[in-house]
Amino acid sequence: MHLKFVMAATVLIVDDNPDIRNVLASYLYRSGHQVLEAANGAMAIQRATAESPNFVLLDLYLPDMNGLEVARTLRKTPVTQHIPIAGWTVDCRATMYREALAAGYIDFCLDKPVSVAVIEALVEQHAKQEC
User: Which fold has domain 10-126?
Assistant: First the structure.
């Protein structure tokens, strides 16, 4: 018999919609992950640099700054530059998001709405965890 062992990851959920954050946080928490939340770009940068999550789920439309600005800042900061970032938006086919993927600012682009199971699978497959 083979047992599947999934290490818990710390996930930073960045979205200005508290309902979306709550649903995702509840789901990921029940799956064994630690969850951090941020409602805007400035808070996301502060939480990521202070708490070094294993994965960032980043809304690309935030009230205070563009999500791509947040991703660029995280990529330029030594303590956060290695963290996988999944950006999510209503249309990943837009040129801006394809360019962000190509430049390495975000690692994945997810079209809203997205299944929480898809998000959990990304976290479990790509979160870099230190043992």
Answer: Rossmann fold (3.40.50)
